[in-house]
Design a protein that fits this description.
single chain, four-stranded antiparallel sheet, about 240 residues, alpha/beta, Rossmann fold, about 40% helix
């Protein structure tokens, strides 16, 4: 479904991504793990069109999208849940969801999909008229995910969905991610909680200082001594 070939990204003189290549197959959850500053968020931002690739290819469904704008990428089925949620705090839950469908042409279906979001995230249905900025951290994360799903993406990019959440909420968010995937959405997940990410991922890549250092199934990497030592708190 998605293929990245020899992707390079610079921030001024800083070489943030160095010949990164990876694939995401249709129906998979693929996770990127790595330390702060490894290039995980840069990878997602470059995929969604928020950062410009210096060189390399991004191929979706067999077509190059490396020169497409961010809005065009949403139109062809890529949606990102950004780090820090970035919901619109002065707008209601419902208004945030409606904005997620801004580029859609099938206006008659939007109400049905909003109701589906309330089924997937019941707390949002109870809070639909509430200002988004007054929601708890976990509720804001659910809203950010629901807003992204309102564009009906084929590929959902998730950037640190568990950040700042209590352990019980982290488990709930990861259960929701699995549920979203089971309904047919392919997911590329960036996550510092490597243990949780590897537990739900079909495949995983490890980024170190802008380069792919390791890859394998989620299970293989979770059992790797090197990964346990570096990311899972093993001895």
């Amino acid at each position: 479904m998605l293929e990245i070939k020899n992707l390079n990204v610079y921030y001024g003189v800083i070489h943030a991504l160095k010949n990164v290549s990876l694939t995401v197959n249709k129906g998979e959850i693929v996770t990127l793990i790595g330390a702060n500053g490894a290039g995980k968020t840069t990878t997602l931002r470059t995929l969604s069109g928020l950062n410009k690739a210096t060189s390399g290819e991004i191929i979706l469904e067999g077509k190059s999208i490396v020169n497409l704008s961010a809005s065009n990428r949403v139109e062809i089925g890529i949606s990102q849940v950004p780090e820090g949620r970035r919901i619109f705090p002065q707008m209601s839950v419902l208004e945030n969801l409606e904005l997620g469908a801004f580029l859609r042409k099938d206006k008659s279906e939007i109400k049905k999909d909003i109701e589906h979001m309330y089924e997937l995230f019941p707390i949002l249905g109870k809070r639909k008229k509430q200002m988004a900025g007054t929601l708890s951290g976990g509720e804001q994360q659910m809203l950010a995910m629901a807003r992204a799903l309102m564009s009906k993406p084929n590929l959902l990019l998730l950037d640190e969905p568990s950040m700042g959440l209590a352990p019980l909420l982290v488990r709930e968010i990861f259960d929701i991610i699995k549920n979203i995937n089971m309904t047919g959405t392919t997911i590329l997940l960036v996550e510092q909680n490597a243990k949780m990410a590897l537990s739900i991922a079909h495949r995983a890549y490890v980024l170190e200082t802008g380069k792919i250092a390791m890859s394998g199934t989620g299970e293989e990497l979770a059992k790797s001594d090197e990964i346990q030592k570096s990311y899972l708190g093993g001895n």
